[in-house]
Amino acid sequence: MTVEIVVYNIASALKAQEGGADRVELCDNPGEGGTTPSFGTVEVVRANLGIDVYVMIRPRGGDFCYSSYEFHAMKRDIYQAQKLSVDGIVLGILNPDGTIDKKRCKELIDKARPLKVTCHRAFDMTRDPFQALEDCIEVGFDRILTSGGQMQAVQGAALIGELIKRANGRIAIMPGSGVNENTVEEIVAKTGTTEIHFSAAATTDSLMQYRNPAIAGMGSDEGSEFKLKTVDPERIKAIRALAEKKLEETKR
Known about the structure:
The structure is a single chain. By secondary structure, this protein is an alpha/beta fold. The chain has one domain (about 1-250): TIM Barrel, CATH 3.20.20.380. The chain has helices spanning about 10-20, 40-50, 70-85, 100-110, 130-140, 155-165, 185-190, 235-250, and strands spanning about 1-5, 25, 50-55, 90, 115-120, 145, 170-175, 195-200, 200-205, 225-230. The strands form 2 sheets. It has an 8-stranded parallel beta sheet with strand order 7-6-5-4-3-2-1-8. Strands 9-10 form a two-stranded antiparallel sheet. Strand 1 (about 1-5), helix 1 (about 10-20) and strand 2 form a beta-alpha-beta unit. It comes from Chryseolinea serpens. Keywords: Cytoplasm. This is PF03932 family protein CutC. Pfam families: CutC (PF03932).
């Protein structure tokens, strides 16, 4: 079982490696679903991780239909990622009609080589997942991250299983979104997947001793200024163990 952990900061990447992850997807802006991280962050993560590092190439939150300016920014971000010797990138571009933008995706994939390239959950916003599967294969994606067109992968498990069958080894299909201790066994049982993507999220308390009582968090009153998002290595180990046990059971 290959385990990919999505991380949004340096500490989380280090914790993911500690927990035995095989790969991290390095992003910024969890509230936006992940955007391109700073290249200072990429450089530090790459220098301190011995596992694969994939970098999100997404210039903004929102939809996946990008302007020519945003497309140019994506090309420049790929160039920077290559210079920092990451192992792969994660991207996806759609046409307004809900199909994969094959022309621009292929241009980015060709530019990224020899890096591996994953199509992210833009895939879940396509109008026809089976056509999108064939389009992703045609343009050269190595992997698709998908929740099966649903909010969480457990809800889209039947479709994910069918995508894996239709892919027939031509491209990797990796379930993601809501993969945790309570759902991973069902997802593996229904799909037969050999790759999973999750966050193993945790929070740690800020080291700040002085805390302005008038401001709990920048732009909110939730106390988020003093809650640091990270990853729980023990959760990674536990979720992997459940997934691998269930995968073995499905092979019998």
